[in-house]
Design goal:
Four copies of one chain form a homotetramer.
Chain A (H helix, E strand, L loop, with lengths): L7 H10 L20 H9 L6 E3 L17 E10 L2 E10 L8 E3 L4 E2 L13 E2 L2 E2 L11 E9 H5 L12 H11 L8 E5 L2 H7 L18 H8 L3 E4 L17 H5 L2 E4 L4 H10 L3 E6 L9 E3 L3 E3 L1
Parallel strand pairs in A: 8-9, 9-10, 10-11
Antiparallel strand pairs in A: 1-14, 2-3, 4-11, 4-13, 6-7, 8-12, 12-14
Helix pairs in contact in A: 4-6
Chain lengths: ~300, ~300, ~300, ~300
């Protein structure tokens, strides 16, 4: 696997050369979830030894912030009394893509000039929803082996700073250092220390107009070679050059990989350290939205 | 356990006499989730033998219908092109309580004259959210043993009709017939044949102004005696009399039980029949909404 | 002007032959509002003799109904106390097109195979809003002479029933009977007795799946010949045949006329009858939404 | 009238001593709109000499900004083709109170320890809306004489800066300088140069955490003595001291005056200067929202 730094341009070329289009048939909309077989789910289940669980979700982002320009809506309503009883309901509204909400991207979310996943054109997307690569394809849930690669621990630094992105070569080194081997269908979780970044910086990660540290596009090679099905990350792509415009996000349309953006990985990293292992069962249960481009999500890891 | 039909008035009296207030301390907000220990989660995991999974969620209810007077919102937005790439995002908005959306009720959702869960007054609920019994208490996810009680199969009828509600005595009989024993902390899933009802009726279950068949309030006794932590159901309470105003919904505030309303149980029932067993691992991953009264949900069962 | 019934096919042919494209320049986005000059506004003002005012708006349609499948949203929120004072705010959300909300249609709202107003293609419309014919073109408000044609009064019947649509010939007869002469730039208000219809019918006008009585497409000829700038109506197009698919709604893209749908005209009709005149000052103040396709509206008439 | 600077504490005392509670009956919900009689509307109409019109509304605030933490929502949806025609609709959603949206405050919007307008308690406000002082009371529209007081012109400075608030004494001087006399029922429009402020400052007026220049609480005396029915302003209250917590906003609950916040007054000021007069006809047409606390608004002035 990779040892030297791959450039953005090389990452883009790699992307074009190694996409998964047609791998599971030209009409496939499951993408890399095809790698999660019944056996893979049993492998995931076999990792649960203690019954400990942890959420990888940030709170529903209701508060406006520099990295949350369109905050989620939460409106309460009381129910009238009837026979001496009462109740309360609420409304949730969210434009979950962006830098605040923990969410999963469906295969239709992004594309480049060659098209969406499996080569479809953007014409499949209408104002009523997408006809291709919708989140509903994954409505039966995603249960697989999760592997956490802890970048701050490996580097001995609190967080990934701007200008020093995580690369494919580094991910390989971290896996070796953690004694973990990636296997096809895994959910790759890359912890970059977002909470530490937020505590150290005046502005939260992902603030509008501020450079965002994160992953280098070469990570695409690591994802593809490890045949990961999901990428779970707290920081996302470092500011991208033109050579690989969508950066690691390209894994969506090129490899059919699900992305879980803005995950909360600090508690997971702490639990991995405490348990002394970096593999676990991971459960992703996206809302079943016909034609939807993704879903807000509460990923749960089990140890 | 119960063999004869308990009246609504008796159910109400039972409710008052056997609530769980104080059982886990007067400041407890986890409710019956306290019964789901690490051991319980391991028990759930041990039920996964084949790696088969199935969703218990209906689609995000975007279409107005007689049982969906405030349909969910789904609005699409294209992202501008940048360096020859593009994308699409969307907005989801939902008032998920009611008869259409698969969702979980938090402990604050309903109450009676004695108060909310653990005896708190409704004063804990403000326009900004609830300060007590919010869904965020369950943000680490609910992983437990699920048990399906299949009423149509037991009765030899396609669905539960109006006037013939499911009772506690019947639930006991079904469990025996299925050869399954309820254990503390289980998620009790009661399948009443909602899809068959919808196919047979001119109007979908839960339509405004139409009587709703479903469970009898005596089921409260079954829930309490079995020490279930969650009730998952497709039909909900049959039209209630004054004697037990909130019916089986009372399990929320009296017992600290989570309710998963409008679950899709037909596919689960088919899978249980196929596998010849009615117990499985169940995963509930509610959105982490501070002060929220519940969450839309995609429950996943694993066999 | 018209005396005999024009067929749907003739209305469609008339539409193609007499559109206003290019009349005010090929880049014009004001449409028939060009007819409302400063002099026209002064004419409108001159009609105010008594200082009486009346609203032509229905209530914000928050309640689900057979003619309101996507009800408007109204959510309240209390403001925290500060120095012993408090307050309350709310959120309004509305998909105002349809059969419930009193609203104005902008020139981009509908089109046919020949294109939008002034011949533009639908490509001007993106997910971020329209680049042509947006409501913001009318942000300075529409103040003009309003003329009410009272169909039920003329017919001696409470409302316009299905199968007996209002025609161009009838509008001419009503104007004569009321002693009013249409002038260029007028707002034509056609009262069809919607409230009487609602009281007489089991379902409100505009209910899904129910035929809708209203105007015949021949009214397009009346609008064009009278050079009206605005059409205000309570019932809209009667169920349309293929010959003139958009019916009287075609006035939007063909003539550049604003439509005010679902107006409340019963109180206006009563006031006209009481005052013994059918002309008045009309004020339309649409919200200033960049790229918007229209606006909810509270039209006010002054006598 | 006032000549010397009234302190915040004196303004608060004045407020308590001179409220309008009971002036139009203890059950009155129209407030100072009672001063707008048919004669007053005719007076307004008589000011229209040229037929010129101008909007006082900012654009629907869809873009997140430091003074717009909860931006308005605008979502587009294409209509399916039918018989070769098509259309487009959209959804507007707005939490209009705050510092961005031009809107009118209803009488229920704010209160102090003595209560809401006419002495009602906040108990009249429920999660379904307000039962007192709702915007629907003004559904027939507000048509009155508008008077613009142009502070920047009077001061010879581009905008009102922090620490130099507009006072009652200054308003009197400006009116004299403009040669205009306030009359009961007038809409008082106070232009403070918000656009100039925005151009000169790094952050727009009303940005979170930034002091806001504006009016001194003594303006309450000017409003009450002039018996204005409406206050239209571009900047609002200067940062308030505890002595008069709601500042000029107190006119809502104490005097029954409507406030039009975040008005766009620069074009109006330019037109007043050009026409050489500071009085005009003003039209306010709030949406008819039952139980609503106000409305987004497009106020139109006619000259």
């Amino acid at each position: 696997m990779t040892e030297t730094l791959m450039s953005q341009a090389e990452a883009q070329a790699y992307l074009k050369a190694h996409n998964n289009w047609g791998r599971w048939g030209k009409d496939d909309q499951m993408g890399a979830m095809n790698l999660i077989t019944a056996e893979k789910r049993l492998e995931a289940v076999s990792l649960v030894k203690k019954g400990r669980n942890v959420s990888l979700s940030r709170p529903f982002p209701k508060t406006p912030a520099p990295n949350n320009p369109t905050p989620a809506m939460h409106w309460m309503r009381a129910l009238g009394r009837r026979f001496g009883v009462s109740g309360v309901i609420d409304f949730y509204g969210i434009s979950y893509h962006g830098q605040s909400s923990t969410h999963i991207d469906a295969l239709c979310h992004v594309w480049d000039d060659d098209g969406l996943w499996n080569g479809r054109t953007p014409d499949v997307i209408t104002a009523d929803g997408t006809q291709w690569g919708s989140i509903q394809n994954w409505s039966q849930g995603i249960v697989t082996r999760g592997v956490l690669l802890d970048v701050p621990k490996f580097r001995g630094e609190p967080f990934v700073p701007q200008g020093k992105p995580v690369t494919a070569a580094e991910l390989e080194q971290i896996a070796r250092a953690e004694g973990v081997v990636m296997r096809p269908g895994d959910a790759l979780c890359v912890y970059s220390g977002r909470e530490n970044y937020d505590r150290a910086s005046g502005l939260p990660w992902g603030s509008t107009g501020v450079p965002r540290p994160g992953l280098h596009a070469s990570c695409l090679k690591f994802i593809r070679e490890s045949d990961s099905s999901v990428l779970v990350w707290d920081m996302m792509d470092e500011e991208r050059e033109e050579e690989c415009p969508w950066g690691t996000h390209s894994a969506i349309f090129a490899f059919g990989v699900a992305l879980v953006d803005n995950a909360l990985l600090e508690p997971l990293a702490a639990l991995c350290a405490e348990e002394g292992r970096y593999e676990f069962m991971l459960m992703l249960c996206p809302l079943v939205v016909e034609g939807g481009t993704g879903s807000p999500l509460n990923p749960i890891a089990l140890f």
